[in-house]
Amino acid sequence: MENTSRRQSCDTSSVPEIVVEPADDYTAAIELSNACREFYRNRVQATESFKRNLNNRNNDKASKTTRRTTIDDSMDKLRCEMVRKYLLLALIIELDVNDLR
User: For residue 90, how far is the Cα from the chain centroid?
Assistant: First the structure.
């Protein structure tokens, strides 16, 4: 029984008909299995290679010092000013408490 839906979807008039012997079916199945296995192995190797490259890039980025920007400098300055004002406020509050005693 032939699959007519496949024949309807493509023009096979220029393609010669191929007769497959029972032994060829077995060989074709083995070749397909081998091709799938080879594809899988190639994908595993490619994935492992990609992961190694990604890890190497991440390690390189972690080992290098990042370049400071003006935003980094401004944030450091803001932190210092906030600490200074907090300490000054704490000192004023402590002095006021001591004056009340």
Answer: 48
In whole angstroms, give the CA distance from residue 34 to residue 40.
10
Beta-carbon contacts of 28 under 8 Å, excluding residues fewer than 6 positions away, are: 20
- Per-residue pLDDT reduced to its tens digit, 52-82: 888 888 776 666 667 788 999 999 999 999 9
What is the pTM (predicted TM-score) of this model?
Answer: 0.36
Mean pLDDT, residues 5-21 taken together: 51
Tokens 């980094």 sit on residue: 72
Q: Give the whole-angstrom CA distance, residue 52 versus residue 74.
A: 37
CA distances from 62 to 48, 58, 65, 69 (A): 21, 6, 7, 18
3-state secondary structure the chain: CCCHHHHHHCCCCCCCCCCCCHHHHHHHHHHHHHHHHHHHHHHHHHHHHHHHHHHHHHHHHHHCCCCCCHHHHHHHHHHHHHHHHHHHHHHHHHHHHHHHC
